[in-house]
Design goal:
The complex is a heterodimer of chains A (358) and B (261).
Chain A (H helix, E strand, L loop, with lengths): L1 H10 L6 H24 L7 H9 L6 H35 L12 H15 L5 H7 L3 H21 E2 L2 E2 L1 H25 L2 H11 L8 H28 L3 H6 L4 H23 L5 H13 L3 H25 L8 H19 L1 H4 L2
Antiparallel strand pairs in A: 1-2
Helix pairs in contact in A: 2-4, 2-14, 4-10, 4-12, 4-13, 4-14, 5-7, 5-8, 5-12, 7-8, 7-12, 10-12, 10-14, 13-14, 13-15, 14-15
Chain B lengths: L1 E10 L2 E11 L4 E5 L6 H8 L6 E6 L2 E2 L5 H7 E4 L11 H10 L9 H8 L15 H15 L4 E2 L2 E2 L1 E5 L7 H16 L3 E5 L3 H7 L2 E6 L2 E6 L1 H4 L2 H8 L1 E2 L2 E3 L6 E3 L5 E2 L2
Helix pairs in contact in B: 3-4, 3-5, 4-5
Classes of the chains: A mainly alpha (358), B alpha/beta (261).
Amino acid sequence: MSQAMTAQARIALPGDRCRRGAQAMVALSLLLLVTSVLSLGTGASGTSLWDALSNLLRGEEIAARDAVILLDIRLPRLGLGILVGAALAVSGAVMQGLFRNPLADPGLVGVSAGAGLGAIGAIVLGGLLPLAVSESLGFYLVPVSAFLGGWGTTLLLYRLSTTRGRTSVAVMLLGGIAIAALAGALSGILIYLADDAQLRDLTFWGLGSLAGATWDKLLVAGPLIGLALAASPFLARALNGLALGEGPAAHLGIPVQKMKNIAVLMVAAATGAAVAVSGGIGFIGIVVPHLLRLVIGPDHRFLLPNAALLGASLLILADMISRSVVAPAELPIGIVTATLGGPFFLWILLRNRSLLDV
Amino acid sequence: MLSAKNIRVNLGASPVLHGVDLTAQPGEVTCIVGPNGSGKTTLLRAMTQDLPYEGDIRLDGDDIAQMPGWHLATRRGVLPQASRIAFPFTVLEIVRLGQMAAADPAPPHRASEALERVGLAGFEGRYYQELSGGEQQRVQLARVLTQVWHPVGHDGPRWLFLDEPVSSLDIGHQLEVMDLMADYAAQGGGVVAVMHDLNLTAIYAQSVAMLAGGRVMAQGSPAAVLTDAALSHAYGCQLRVNATPGEAATFLLPHMARRAG
């Protein structure tokens, strides 16, 4: 075994980072496992995961209160954190590949704002829909409209910033600011129109938090995010080719237009669902792919799965911080990710200054 | 055979190519020459479907507009002019992108072999973005080469479409790349290149198409096409060609040229 491995290591060429990408996947899976267990064991109630587990092993009953806390509060919250963290990080990586720019991020360029507008629209105006529509969508109304909002903004942004296969970074970033501002203004108008019950819903939703995670929310966000994440490996090869430019990618036999459409849908679905269940959580989508590119390189075959793992772990960690710094109260998780992510983003910006001078 | 008939391209409202005909044979290096703005690159980009065109383009009898992209990718490689890459890929990772589009699976050392052929042995671990313009161009050539590695496949010849492959290279590497093109053709592949350097064209091309004002003035052997009259007309200055003794390759010295007027 070890002989085979050293022989392989000898063959591995300099500049070949496939092995590192695979090793990172193992390491990050372990990290996710560890953070998940820690997260299940941490909380304001002081319920211990270990006590519960050892009780279970000794064949004793778990106290009803502990069972509720573990199974109905912490476990769905953990599940939602994994889903949302993975969704945000992978959407960031896909969007950066699509726009051929490390600064593209759904949160930064207005996609999250568009998804937010969709979600707020559904909460405030959902009552105006024909009963048949709102009843058949049920719980899915908010995430589906968030997805549509995100899809619309991503398409608009791509049309704005890309002419003849070339993406203008300046137009992308400035267009994103305009779209985000517009979506914010429309959201403001909707909030102004909302009644008291809707306002309460909006406030809870807008905190940018994993608090209030329930199995229902998980069931709502799960399919959309799961579908988007499952589609992402099929985009990896195309995104690698796209790094050369749209023309060269087409000459590699990649169906560029089709792949771009899938990428836009994927980003919209994952971001839309994440925003619908957790509000706006920033910076995961830009920090995670950037960190990974430094370590394993930009090959999307490894970048995308690793981004999902690291994104999930980081969001769980941020959630643990948000639950513990002001315990028993909670800091909105958006504040935690922004506090850590903002300076990091500035650092990326300075490193990539040349990319902006186009 | 590559045959392009009556190719028309408009960029915006203005026509850039007015019904261009061009043929290229496998086993030959075909060069497209002409002054700036004559439509050389536009013609190559139309023939590789980077631009929408009117007309009929066939690769070994098949209408390229009807062929699926993956199939075309196994039969032709396309080298663009200088290109920037979005993320910090290593040279090896870039070259392997070509390999993945190839018809046949490649042995693991193929990328290194291709780098050696373009004079970049040992560059595998370098970052593409940190290379000079000429080195980047050769990395891209190595990538294209791995895509259509064998000049003849089971279903016919393979093709290289190269847009100014030697424009940013020093003379040693220019010769290296021109030799590579000649080898590829000698083994049965087809090579179509947009060229600025008329002397290298005269030495290496079996067929030259001279463009001016979006039309083909002439296509044929270098000696037949690169004449005083044709060159002077196309480039808008007085040019005199000479021939080397022996193998009689046409050459051109700027010393002998006079600007018109």
